[in-house]
Write a structure and sequence with these properties.
Number of helices: 15
Shape: globular
Main location: cytoplasm
Keywords: ATP-binding, Cell cycle, Cell division, Cell shape, Cell wall biogenesis/degradation, Cytoplasm, Ligase, Nucleotide-binding, Peptidoglycan synthesis
Low-confidence stretches: none
CATH superfamily of the largest domain: Mur-like, catalytic domain
Structural class: alpha/beta
Family: Belongs to the MurCDEF family. MurF subfamily.
Radius of gyration: 24 Å
Mean pLDDT: 93
Domain Mur ligase C-terminal: 335-454
Distance between the termini: 39 Å
GO molecular function: ATP binding; UDP-N-acetylmuramoyl-tripeptide-D-alanyl-D-alanine ligase activity
Largest sheet: 9 strands, mixed
Strand order of the largest sheet: 9-10-8-11-12-13-14-15-16
Number of strands: 23
Helix content: 25-40%
CATH architecture of the largest domain: 3-Layer(aba) Sandwich
Length: 475
């Protein structure tokens, strides 16, 4: 069964078809394009029209373009449109219109992708579920995700992000969700917003896209919760709250930390439930409640949903924990790596440090008699005029008393480094490559190492370096 025929794509976009073709997928990248894909020639850092000939040579079924590119035959399989991004949105609308299942949209200052991935498992174990790849949550990622939605999808999970005011509502109206989730509101993207309230208002604009009778699932523990609830109700949504505070329909009552999972106790519509999350951090326990509330709204089997949550693990860069062996002949010589290198804001930084503080280093294994809790922290970006104070305040977090050593990456992290007591100071570098030159000097057997920072700080380079010099303990 094809994803798009030439006639369907032309009707959705108003474009001119060259040739009779069918495609099985949609791609924007010649490096990962599959045979039979529709290649979408977006204009971003480079004009993808320059790669259309290559895409067709690699087996693309057709290309979505504004003109016949150089090196492409006049009779090549094409869909010619005035604007490629507008046409991609047309495909997205048509895909959403022909879909008879339910759509869930997720936004928030942190936890969007992990919640989306959790929902992929919870929904996917009970329905044919289409889900956004990676963090495809912007002005091209959302329409691309929708355009790729299979004809027979029974559910879809769409992630919606933003950097500036006015970005979420148009994407929400494109996705037309039946359920919209706000994971949390935190100081992120403050360069573009005047206040936390401004961020909450932008996030709440996701409810403008809700289908009639749609449900808003909102974090009930936030100072901005009333603002978001009011906006959802104003737009006619039914509101469910999740969190730890009284009045939450899905309420977390107790969390027990262990080395390999969280054991979570909650009440879901007055029914006691217990579930495990194979990740560390209270925020994962709360995101699981949002997923459980979604399962309730969609009429899924609760027991199966709880089992799905118990099998889920966070993706790389978002809290993935793994013991790494330094010497394959001495498997006890290992350290624990907490990879949270994809994104950072003050709230997620505090949550990650809580995880590190609760970890259990191992003694008498390496050069140091005692295993250490080590934080390698990259700078937090897009925090606006208050960024210095927000970086400095990390030193005052309660979890910091249990952290043994802190390495700082990026110029914004200098104020944190200077606020730390001398015995906790590691290295402070402008660029992560300086630390990555000799990663073995940073860790020792028995240590627990957290790597956390905004994507732009590039601390993931150090994650890669540490992985290259070690082996997974479970190999």
């Amino acid at each position: 069964m094809s994803l798009w025929t030439a006639a369907e794509a032309a009707a959705a976009t108003g474009g001119e078809v060259r040739g009779a073709w069918e495609v099985q997928g949609v791609s924007i990248d010649t490096r990962t394009i599959a045979k039979g894909d529709l290649f979408v020639a977006l204009k971003a850092a480079r004009d993808a029209h320059d790669f259309v000939a290559q895409a067709l040579q690699k087996g693309a079924g057709a290309a979505l373009v504004t003109h016949v590119p150089e090196g492409v035959a006049e009779d090549a399989p094409l869909l010619i449109v005035p604007d490629v991004l507008d046409a991609l949105e047309g495909l997205a609308r048509a895909a959403r219109a022909r879909m008879s299942g339910k759509v869930v949209a997720v936004t928030g200052s942190a936890g969007k992708t992990s919640t989306k991935e959790m929902l992929r498992d919870v929904l996917g174990d009970q329905r044919r579920t289409h889900c956004a790849e990676a963090s495809y949550n912007n002005h091209w990622g959302v329409p691309l995700t929708l355009a790729r939605m299979p004809r027979d999808a029974q559910a879809a999970v769409i992630e919606i992000g933003m950097n500036h005011p006015g970005e979420i509502a148009p994407l929400a109206r494109l996705a037309r969700p039946d359920v919209a989730i706000i994971t949390t509101i935190a100081p992120a993207h403050l360069e573009a917003f005047e206040s936390i309230e401004g961020i909450a208002q932008e996030k709440a604009s996701i409810f403008e896209g809700l289908e009639p009778g749609g449900v808003a699932i909102i974090n009930g523990d936030l100072p901005t919760t009333p603002l978001m609830v009011a906006r959802a109700e104003e737009l006619g949504a039914r509101v469910l709250r999740f969190g730890e505070s009284a009045g939450c329909h899905h309420r977390l009552t107790r969390v027990q930390f262990s080395d390999d999972c969280l054991v979570c106790h909650a009440r879901a519509w007055r029914t006691p439930v217990t579930y495990k999350v194979r990740a560390a951090g209270r925020h994962f326990a709360l995101n699981a409640l949002a997923a459980l509330a979604t399962a309730h709204v969609l009429g899924l089997d609760r027991a199966l949903a709880l089992a799905s949550i118990g099998r889920w693990t966070p993706p790389a860069g978002r809290g993935l924990r793994q013991w790494r062996v330094l010497d394959p002949l001495e498997r006890a010589l290992s350290f624990e790596l907490i990879d949270d290198a994809f994104n950072a804001n003050p709230a997620s930084m505090a949550a990650a440090l809580d995880v590190l503080a609760a970890s259990h280093p191992r003694d008498n294994l390496g050069r140091h008699a005692q295993g250490r809790r080590i934080a390698i922290l990259g700078e937090m970006l897009e925090l606006g005029t208050g960024e210095q104070a927000l970086h400095r305040d990390i030193a005052t977090l309660p979890a910091m008393k249990d952290v043994d050593l802190v390495h700082c990456v990026g110029p914004r992290m200098r104020v944190l480094y200077e606020a730390l007591p001398d015995h906790k100071r590691g290295q402070c570098v402008e660029k992560v490559e300086k630390l990555a030159e000799d990663p073995l000097r940073l860790v020792d057997a028995g240590d627990v190492v957290l790597i956390k920072g905004s994507k732009g700080s590039r601390v993931s380079v150090l994650v890669d370096a540490l992985r290259k010099l070690s082996h997974p303990a479970d190999d």
